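Wed. Picked up where I left off yesterday with Alpha/beta hydrolase. The coffee machine is broken again, so keeping this brief.
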Amino acid sequence: MSETSTGDAVAAAAAATGAWRRAGGVAGTAIGVIAAGAAAGVALERLTVGRGMRKKARLALDATGPYGSLRGTPGTAVADDGTRLHYEVEEVDPQVAAPRRRRLFGRKAPAPVTVVFSHGYCLGQDSWHFQRAALRGLVRTVFWDQRSHGRSARGAAQSGPDGVPVTIDQLGRDLKAVIDAAAPEGPLVLVGHSMGGMTMMALGALHPGLVRERVVAAAFVGTSAGRLGEVNYGLPVAGVNVVRRVLPGVLRALGSQAELVERGRRATADLFAGLIKRYSFSSKDVDPAVARFAERLIESTPIDVVAEFYPAFTEHDKSAALPVFAGLPVLVLAGDKDLVTPTSHSEAIADLLPEAELVIVPDGGHLVMLEHPEAVTDRLADLLVRAGAVPAAANVGTYGSTAQPGS
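Structure written out below (tokens, as returned):
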């Protein structure tokens, strides 16, 4: 690599460092230190891998596979603050499902069930790609984008100088609006990953009657009922204490300088790709196309949206709402190496719902539904059978591990 190219890499990283520092105050200084470290790492990496080569690799990975390409019939729900929430419906294919349901259930086939999928923080409905593909045509499904994510509008209550932070309760009300618009009647199965599982808990706390009357099963994937402020994210005690102390201020400062920060974020894209992979997956050899797909999902979340949502997690405590799901078929599933919502949080949920099926997926990270889709889809299919949503003999599609052969 030429001396000029190396100098350009260092200069770009240094410029990013300055952008982070200008975020302001102690928070800006903290980010400046992080960016300085990133600059060294990025410059070193660029000695061996040129910028053009990395760009070509990303473009090639973006074109690999159909990840995120599945679309349903679009609709819009309106939240109580006026935010427009995008959802998509996948209807049952009568040629596939109806004859099978009649053959297996007879004339007394149960009422069609709608499965509502809620995604996690900094993701979107496409994070359920593999499960969506497997269930297509077999059961009615609804996939939606949480406020300020994906194709949904920016949260109205969060917009402008007088905007208020997001709360998990608000997300529960949003889910109620989506259900009212996309599945106003009939039995429901609720499936949520991470923040999506918390959204389900908030729905249960705010609308227990809806859960008791219409919900026939629930799945909590890589989520938590509370005490997220105690998570160490795989960091040593001293490091995590520093992060907890400065991160709220860092995010507030970054959110107020969104345009500046996004430029710095692009300049240090290699660093963020590494962080995303570490906190999303456990498998060392996860399919690069899947890893890049997750990277794109997370990158698409603006920094000011990241800042608006973060405080809600430290305040989140919905353990008292979980008993409303008692007596239902419930799946609690997590990756065994999840650094964001550790398995102890799933175990705590299962303790409050002792009849729930607890599944810990070996070598699984936080995005377990992308990393080990075969395990997640298999357990979801079993849950749907127990709920009467699909017949036991249904041919639910499966997918193998997205880790590369030999992993």
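Quick read: The beta strands are 73-78, 84-90, 114-118, 140-144, 188-193, 215-221, 330-335, 357-361.
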